[in-house]
Structure formats: structure tokens, C-alpha cells
Amino acid sequence: MTIRGWESRYREIRNAFGYSKLKDLESAQKLNRKIRKKYPISKLKKLISGQTVFIIGAGPSLSNSILTLKKYENVTKIVADGAVQALIENNIKPDILVTDLDGDISSIKKVGRTKIPIIVHAHGNNYNELELVSIFQNKIGTTQTRKFGKLENFGGFTDGDRCVFLAESFNPEKIILFGMDFGKKIGKYSKKKVLDRKTKLKKLEYGKKLLEWLAKKSNSDLYTTSKPIKGFRKISFADLEYMIDN
Fold it and tell me: Strands (DSSP E) along 41-88, which ranges?
């Protein structure tokens, strides 16, 4: 299920950020131990395959998207870590949460205690945070290394672009991005403690590059309501309303 060519992208990321493959693997092994019962992949496929899917990130434009998102209760919403707080505050139900556990923990716990599936990602910097996984009701673990055990590797680097890679794995008809800006401004719902702004912006830059790479391989119709991304058609909320309602 890992997209072809991902291992090369993973090596590039490790080299660019100085990440340890061994630490990634140690975290992945811990996550694998923490998952006793894996949420069925078939249920994820049912939520995504052939559907219009909203991908919701925690970028600065998220706040302007809330009223539009509220209109579409029946569209599958895959939500990146930090953005889930905004959705909960506005009574919008996520359908899938993608997290590496560095967002608003109280919001993540709220979702984790429901039937909503959580895609939990293991990497070298979140080994300790993985203790939280035990309280989640429905979970699938992902890794940046080769998939093994109960873990998957759908591809992707930041929470936001991992949402898109996840969706692409199950062949949706349309993927539409909200709050996925990948710019120089960090959204208020993004990672709670940005200790190194330069590194955060570099991660966003890589996330955007990965989506541009993915767009060349995708069979889905790709759109963004956020900042332009190569391979994704920029649409307004009015365009979106016409496209979905017709």
C-alpha cells in the first residue's frame, strides 16, 4: 500500500533534517506493541474509495473555511492533528484523524475515545508520546520506515500531507484541501509549541514538495481552497459549492 518511490523520498527527508532511521524504527516498534487490535483497513476504504474527500489542515486559512465545512456533514473529512481542535470548537465531526500526537492533546483524546478512527504516526521524536495510544478506541499505526506488524506506511511527512497520502491510497474521486497553506505563516491551530520556527517552515516546504510529487502520480481530481500547489486546481468556496451540489 506504500506509494511507489516513497523510500527515496524518506531518505531525502532523513538527510535534510538529520533524522535517525534507528530512532524512527524504535518508535515504530513501540507503536506496534501498543496496538492490540487494528482498525480494519476495509472500513477506511469504505470512507474514502470513490468519494469526495476533504483534507483539513491547521494552516492560517482554516478559520476562513469553517462556515463552508459546516455545510457538508456527509463529505468524508480527514483531519490533520492541529486542525481537530478547530473542528471540535465548531461542532464539526471529523471522519478520520491523522496525528503524530503533537497537537492539542485534549482534543485528540476526545476523538480517541469515540468510534472515529485515528491514524497514529510513529517517528523518532514522539517515542514518549506514544503512551497515549492505549486510550484510543479505533486506531491504525503508521511508520516512516518499511511497514511491518500491525503498522502501515501510506507515505507523507507532516500531518497535513500524510492525510493526502492516506486518501490517495484508497482512490477517492476528488481530494479537496482546506487550511493547507504551506506558507511562511504558521496557523494558530498548528503545533502547540513551535520551538524552532525555521525547522517548522522547512517541514512545511517539504510537505508541499511531497504533494506536488504525489499529484503527478494521482488518479484523483485534486483541488485546493488554500494557497496554490502544483497539480492541485485552485478553487473558491463558491466553485466548491457548485461542484459538490451538482
Answer: 52-56, 76-80
Over residues 134-157, the pLDDT tens digits come to 999 999 999 999 999 999 999 999
Q: Is 232 helix (H, G, I), strand (E, B) or coil?
A: strand
**Distance of alpha carbon 84 from alpha carbon 82, whole angstroms:** 6
What is d(CA 98, CA 32) in angstroms, rounded to the nearest whole number?
16
Structural domain spans, the chain: 6-245
The helices-and-strands tally (H runs, E runs) of the chain is 9, 9
Q: What is the mean pLDDT of the chain?
A: 93
Strand order in the sheet with 139-143: 151-152, 139-143, 118-122, 96-99, 76-80, 52-56, 174-178, 221-224, 233-234
DSSP 83-97: HHHHHHHTT---SEE
For residue range 6-35, what is the model confidence (pLDDT) as tens digits?
Answer: 999 999 999 999 999 999 999 999 999 999
Q: Which CATH architecture has domain 6-245?
A: Alpha-Beta Complex (3.90)
pTM of the entire predicted model: 0.95
